[in-house]
Amino acid sequence: MNALDFTLTTDAALLLPITALLPLTAILLVAQSNPYQTLVMRGILGAVAALIYALLGAADVALTEALVGTLLSTTLYAVALRSSMVLRLSLPGGAMPPEAVSQRLRSWLEPLHLRLELVPQPQPGEPGLHGRLIRAEAESAYALLLHRPQLLDHLASLPGADGWRQEGHRLELIRAEGPVPAPALAGGSGAPGEVAP
Prior knowledge:
Elements: H1 3-10, H2 12-31, H3 35-55, H4 59-84, E1 86-90, H5 99-109, E2 115-119, E3 131-135, E4 142-146, H6 149-156, H7 160-166, E5 170-173, H8 183-186, E6 194-195
Parallel strand pairs: 1-2, 1-3, 4-5, 5-6
Antiparallel strand pairs: 3-4
Helix pairs in contact: 2-3, 3-4, 5-7
């Protein structure tokens, strides 16, 4: 009888429940819609796998799984989430919107697990901006102008879009990089997919 048979036969009561955690954790990982919960589940999956390898006597594989499969991949995924799960909007006038408008935008983005980042004084040609948040002249309404039609359609399909429009704000697509003319902000229905001239 070799050492592996001895470990499997004597420690089966301990190994079976821990091994059952692998498919359970994998199913939970795939079923998550929140990317931050997915990150936690991935870490748990790697830790359980490393524990099983260690219990079976494969210390080198357990160490590799713990360092690369769990620590490194979870860290890289966390960095990727932090940098990509954000909606960056420039504020051409430089003035921050009222807290009620910012809160409305944050609650609107919540189902997508996006953070809102408002950039008051963007540098010319600053990368990573998804659009602009502009206050209409002589009005308390704001226009959310986005660069990508896919993002506009996705945001327009969320429940928060109705609340945004009911408060008199608008959601539009920026056709070109140039400034949006004032008439595009003053009137119109604010319907999803509306293109600023």
